């Protein structure tokens, strides 16, 4: 199996990075574990930037953020992959209108589903494509979840990408831990919250979690941040105001932006046409565009450095 996995990637020793931890077998590492680690590494090192989208709890808009950032990057002409490993709530297929797609592949790899955006394309893989029933994963235990996440990272034939956006399961449990550990040298995490204290508390834990696993925090996004009445223009802070921004300041991490509650976000999500593409003039789409721009700037600064 491990040797098979290796055949799916390219030869790990051919990349020439003498400092790569996957070059040599570690003490006490079994041959099979070593080959698996190399296979994962050789897949990941074809991807220049890896961005992990995290949230303290479900329902705050993490998948919506992951999808819109990935599509915005693809629309900017980048080669982008979107990986949905939210085992208990894989919503990416629905948000991109590709649910029910049969995933093809060959003996050693799965081929991502291609979704076109103008001149760009998004390569998508979701755990949702492979579950027969949405509730199939309910009985999975920790090690099984870890292995499924590992297989998704290692066995999907992404090819060379500029960005891989990973929609991680919410919280700070086994699954996000697996994602953070398996993706070595990730650019970092984008942490999504809503403004109210109960959500912000969870996201504080998320930032502490990132520090523990040495995953840089690229920044915090406050989603569902106020609703502008279409009749009178008054901004109603349904979930309170500025909790995400205040938390980011307090924790010393960047604040990336506030996305308002907009019915267009729900409609576009339900119809599988992300707002950045279907409603580019909306406030939400503009904020997503600015955040994607920040990621691009950061990416080019990193390359220059
Ligand atoms: P999560 O991945 O955190 O569970 P989702 O991205 O699936 O959350 O979003 C949950 C629901 O909230 C979806 O119906 C989505 O359309 C809606 N939603 C997300 N962000 C917004 C927003 N800014 N305005 C209105 N609805 C939103």
Question: What does this molecule look like?
Answer:
By secondary structure, this protein is of the alpha/beta class. It has a single domain (46-304), classed as 3-Layer(aba) Sandwich (Rossmann fold). 40% of the residues lie in helices and 19% in strands. It is built from 11 helices and 12 strands. The strands form 3 sheets. Strands 5-6-2-7-1-8-9-12 form an 8-stranded mixed β-sheet, with helices on both faces. The protein has a two-stranded antiparallel sheet with strand order 3-4. A two-stranded antiparallel ribbon has the order 10-11. Strand 5 and strand 6 form a beta hairpin. Helix 1 runs parallel beside helix 2 (31-44), helix 2 packs across helix 5 (142-155) and helix 3 crosses helix 11. It is globular. Mean pLDDT is 87; it is low at 1-9.
Helix-strand layout with pairing:
Layout: H1 2-8, H2 31-44, E1 47-55, H3 62-75, E2 80-84, H4 92-95, E3 105-106, E4 109-110, E5 113-117, E6 120-126, H5 142-155, E7 161-167, H6 174-182, E8 188-193, H7 197-212, E9 217-223, E10 227-228, E11 235-236, H8 243-251, E12 255-259, H9 263-271, H10 275-278, H11 283-304
Parallel strand pairs: 1-7, 1-8, 2-6, 2-7, 8-9, 9-12
Antiparallel strand pairs: 3-4, 5-6, 10-11
Helix pairs in contact: 1-2, 2-5, 3-11, 5-6, 7-8
């Amino acid at each position: 199996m491990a040797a098979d996995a290796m055949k799916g990637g390219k030869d790990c020793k051919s990349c020439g990075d003498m400092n790569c931890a996957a070059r040599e077998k570690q003490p006490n590492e079994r041959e099979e574990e070593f080959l698996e680690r190399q296979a994962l590494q050789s897949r990941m090192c074809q991807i220049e930037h890896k961005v992990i989208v995290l949230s303290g709890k479900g329902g705050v808009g993490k998948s919506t953020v992951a999808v819109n950032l990935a599509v915005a990057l693809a629309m900017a002409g980048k080669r982008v992959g979107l990986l949905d490993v939210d085992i208990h709530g894989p919503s990416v297929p629905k948000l991109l209108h590709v649910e029910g797609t049969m995933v093809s592949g060959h003996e050693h790899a799965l081929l991502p589903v291609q979704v076109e955006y103008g001149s760009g394309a998004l390569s998508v893989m979701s755990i949702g494509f492979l579950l027969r029933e949405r509730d199939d994963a309910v009985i999975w235990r920790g090690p099984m979840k870890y292995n499924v996440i590992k297989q998704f990272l290692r066995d999907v034939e992404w090819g060379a990408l500029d960005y891989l956006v990973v929609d991680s399961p919410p919280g700070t449990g086994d699954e996000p831990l697996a994602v953070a550990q398996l993706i070595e040298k990730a650019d970092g995490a984008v942490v999504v919250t809503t403004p109210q204290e109960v959500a912000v508390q969870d996201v504080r834990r998320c930032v502490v979690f990132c520090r523990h696993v040495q995953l840089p925090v690229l920044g915090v996004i406050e989603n569902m941040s106020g609703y502008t009445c279409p009749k009178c223009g008054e901004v109603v802070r349904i979930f309170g105001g500025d909790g995400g921004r205040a938390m980011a300041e307090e924790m010393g991490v960047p604040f990336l932006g506030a996305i308002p509650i907009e019915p267009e976000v729900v409609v576009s999500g339900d119809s599988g046409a992300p707002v950045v593409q279907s409603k580019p003039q909306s406030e939400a789409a503009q904020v997503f565009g600015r955040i994607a721009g920040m990621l691009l700037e950061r990416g080019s600064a990193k390359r220059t450095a």
